[in-house]
Amino acid sequence: METYKNYSLKELNSFNLNVRAKIFSIIRSIKDVRELLTMDCFQDNRHLILGEGNNILFTKNFDGLIIRPGIMDFKVIKETAGYVTIKAGAGNNWNAFVAICMARQYWGLENLSLIPGSVGSAPIQNIGAYGVEAKDTIELVEGIDISTGELLRLSNNECEFGYRSSIFKTSLKDKIMVTSVHFKLSKYPNPKLEYGPLKERFKDNPSPDIFSISTFIIETRMSKLPNPDKLGNAGSFFKNPVIPLEEFRGQEDLHPGMPHYPAGDGLEKIPAGWLIEQCGWKGKRLGNVGVYPEHALVIVNYGNATGREVFEFSEKIRHSVKEKFGIRLEREVVVV
Ligand code: EPU
């Protein structure tokens, strides 16, 4: 385990904010976690578990202990003719992990190519894109109960996955440190082409190879979403609001052409990007902060913004959407 004081988080938050942590610790094994739990720096400070910092907005320095899971293993733990189960350590980079699975022709994660972040963060917010969510392939999540040091194994069902949500964001929030995730992947080609642009791209080829799908996803992401290494951002800042069908009908009468997608159980999902664009925010910049010109759901740091500025800017957007549509946007990004 490595522990540092007054540690810069500039490289560890994708908004590229210049913030520091009072204490910063990297854990490399379950033994490290258990050791850390007994240490004064853990007992005497509030703590935060931080993956690669792609979904977080620091509004100030963190006056406590930041724990970075650095468990890096990758193991095939079960294999049949059709499936393989992989155990991947929480510290693995998500995109690198996806690339290894694809190189071995293990299907299931290709639509999630190029999502920034770590394997350990994937189940927490149930990352999703282009018609696939992490929950579709997660079999089991292993983590340490921070109050007891006990290793817990939660099945897919026990993780209570939802849209950008899981039990790790609700009743087990801040109680479990995810140490590894088990993914069940198909050894047979299993393309998931339901998302509109994918369906269109492969309409003449219903059986594309894994890399053709991944390449299309990567190109799509790169055309719409800014690269955090060049322009600080945390992907979608807000979740897409989900409202009852009846309420949606009322919205549609007032705002003809409002896009929407069925979200099951008599609910409709409305793209927050559309709501924000309709309020005139797309491409708008105030000082150091702005809305990305190619995608209204992404807030960017043009260089020297503070976390406070980004937060205040996001609240202005929220306020506009509430005023115009009466819809309350919920943040996807975690504000600290
Ligand atoms: N739209 C606009 N203006 C915009 C952007 C979008 O009107 O500037 C409307 C359009 O109607 C468009 C629709 O929003 O058809 C959907 O846009 P997009 O396909 O880009 O998807 P999204 O709903 O904005 C979600 C995820 C993304 C994920 C994409 C692709 C959330 C909060 N975001 O975005 O995930 O990559 O779908 O599947 O669910 C992330 O979570 O950080 C993220 C980038």
Folded structure, characterized:
With 336 residues, the protein is of the alpha+beta class. It folds into 3 domains: 68 residues, Uridine Diphospho-n-acetylenolpyruvylglucosamine Reductase, domain 2 (2-Layer Sandwich), CATH 3.30.43; 150 residues, Uridine Diphospho-n-acetylenolpyruvylglucosamine Reductase, domain 3; 104 residues, UDP-N-acetylenolpyruvoylglucosamine reductase, C-terminal domain (Uridine Diphospho-n-acetylenolpyruvylglucosamine Reductase, domain 1). Helices cover 25% and strands 28% of the residues. It has 9 helices and 20 strands. A 5-stranded antiparallel beta sheet has the order 6-7-12-10-11. The chain has a 4-stranded mixed beta sheet with strand order 1-2-5-3. A 4-stranded antiparallel beta sheet has the order 13-19-18-17, with helices on one face. Bound molecules: uridine-diphosphate-2(N-acetylglucosaminyl) butyric acid. Uridine-diphosphate-2(N-acetylglucosaminyl) butyric acid binds next to strand 13 and helix 8.
Name the helix and strand elements from N-terminus to C-terminus, one letter apiece. EEHHEEEEEHHEEEEEHHEEHEEHEEEHE
Low-confidence stretches: none
Main beta sheet: strand number and arrangement? 5 strands, antiparallel
- What is the terminal separation in angstroms? 25 Å
Backbone shape: globular
Structural class label: alpha+beta
What is the helical fraction, as a range of percent? 25-40%
The Cα radius of gyration reads 20 Å
Q: How many structurally independent domains?
A: 3
CATH architecture assignment name of the largest domain: 2-Layer Sandwich
CATH topology of the largest domain: Uridine Diphospho-n-acetylenolpyruvylglucosamine Reductase, domain 3
